[in-house]
Amino acid sequence: MKKFLILALSAALLLALFGCGSPKEDDKGIPGVNAPPAGTENFEEIALTLPSPTSPETDTGENGSKMYKYTGEDFTKIKEALPGSYVAVTYKATVTYAVGEIGWIDASNAGPVISGKDDKGKNQTAYYNVEDLLLGTDNFTVHIFNGATLADVTLYAAPPDYDYKGNDKATAGATKIVLPQGHNIIGRGDLSKVDFKKITTAASGTLVFYFDETADTESGILKFGPKKGSPYKHYGIDSDGSIKDESGKGWRVVNSETRTITYTVAEIKAGVTEAGAGFNKLEINNDSSGKEGVLLYLELKP
Predict the structure, then answer these.
(1) Is the pLDDT of residue 121 over 50?
(2) 259 shares its domain with 207
(3) Same domain for 86 and 114
(4) CB 263 within 8 A of CB 233
(5) If residue 207 lies in a helix (H) or strand (E), which one and from where to where?
(6) Are both 26 and 122 inside the same structural domain?
(7) Is 107 in the same domain as 53?
(8) What is d(CA 296, CA 145) in angstroms, rounded to the nearest whole number?
(9) Structural domain tally of the chain?
(10) Which of 194, 186, 174 is nearest to 281 (CA)?
(11) CATH of the domain at 32
(12) Is 6 among the domain residues?
C-alpha cells in the first residue's frame, strides 16, 4: 500500500507539471477525495472478484447500463469492514459526465456517483469510504453506464486499532452529502439519487460546500442546479436567491473568508419547481473561469 501511495503521488506530480489540459481538469489528488485517504498505508488490501456484468432488472434511465453484483463472501467483507475502510473503484470512461453509481437498489435509490474524465480510455480510480456505500440486503452493486468499463474493485480494510476521525469539516447533527468523484473534484458531477432525496425532501436546512484555502471569489465560482432531459438545462441560483437559466447567469461565488458556498433547501426546491415535471437530479457544475479552489466536503445542516 505504501508503494502504491508513492506511485500515486508521483503520478499526480507529473500530471501537475506536464499534464495536458487546463489545471482545473487535472486530478488534484486530494487525500480522501480523488486519492486514497491519508494514514491508510497499513490497511489490508483485499482484491474482490469482478463478477460478470448483467442487465438491470428494471430501467435505470441511463445509457448502456451494466450491473456488477458482489454477493457472498465479497459482500460480507464490505459489509463488515470497520469505519475508515474504503473501496477503490477502477474504470475507463470516454465522457466527462456521470458513468457509474457505487451501489444501486432501484432507479430512484442509488449510491455515490463516479464521473468520467475523457482521458482517451485510460484507467482512473475513485475512492469511497465504506460508510458512504449503498448496500443491498445481501449484495453490493456497481452500476456502470454511458460507455464506461469497470476494471476492478478493491477493498482496503482498516485494522481494529485504526482511529477513524472522519472529515474535520463535518458538523455535529448535519447530514453528509457524498461528493461525486472521478472527473473534476473542484466541483462537477451528479449527486446521488439518495442524496437528492435527502435534500429535496428536507423540511428546511442549509446545504454547505466547503472549499480549500486556495478558493476565493475569483477562482472558486461554482454553479449548482438541476438538470433534465437532453441536452441538459442548468439552473443557477444567484446570491439573492433568484433562479437563472441563461448562459453564465445564476453563479454563486465562494465566500473568501469562510471558503464556503451555501444554499437553503427552500432555494433548491424553488429550482426543482422551475425545472418542471420529471426533474430528478442535482448537479455541481464548476464555472469555466474557476481554475483553482478544491471542493472538500458537502453537508446538509438542519
Answers:
(1) yes
(2) yes
(3) yes
(4) no
(5) strand 206-211
(6) yes
(7) yes
(8) 26
(9) 2
(10) 194
(11) 2.60.120
(12) no
CA 103 from centre of chain: 13
Q: Over the stretch 142-193, which tens digit does the pLDDT of each residue have? A: 999 999 999 999 999 999 999 998 899 999 999 999 988 876 555 567 899 9
The two counts, helices (H) then strands (E), for the chain are: 4, 19
Rounded CA separation 270/258 (Å): 25
Asked whether the predicted pLDDT for residue 277 surpasses 60, the reply is no
Is the torsion defined by CA of 114, 117, 118, 124 positive or negative? negative
- Band (pLDDT 50/70/90 cuts) for residue 95 is confident
- Cell, residue 253: 461565488
Q: Which cell numbers in the block locate residue 156?
A: 482496503
Which residue is listed with cell 460480507? Answer: 76
Residue 90, beta-bridge partner list: 125, 152
Question: Which cell numbers in the block locate residue 21?
Answer: 489540459
Residue pLDDT, tens place only, 100-111 = 999 999 888 999
Of 9-13, 128-132, 266-270, 286-290, which one has max mean pLDDT? 128-132
With 0-12 / 13-18 / 19 or more C-beta atoms within 10 angstroms meaning exposed / middle / buried, residue 34 is buried
Give dist(CA 222, CA 290) in Å, integer. 7
Asked whether residue 122 is assigned to any structural domain, the reply reads yes
- From first CA to last CA, the distance across the chain in angstroms is 39
**Residue 230: domain span:** 175-301
Average pLDDT estimate for 58-70 = 87
Does 241 reside within a domain?
A: yes
Residues 6+ apart with CB under 8 A from 50: 68, 150, 151, 152, 153
**pLDDT above 70: residue 286:** no
Q: Is 165 part of any domain?
A: no
| Range scoring the smallest mean pLDDT among 8-22, 256-270, 274-288 | 8-22
| Contact status, residue 82 vs residue 100, Cβ threshold 8 Å | no
The overall longest dimension of the chain from CA atoms, in Å, is: 53
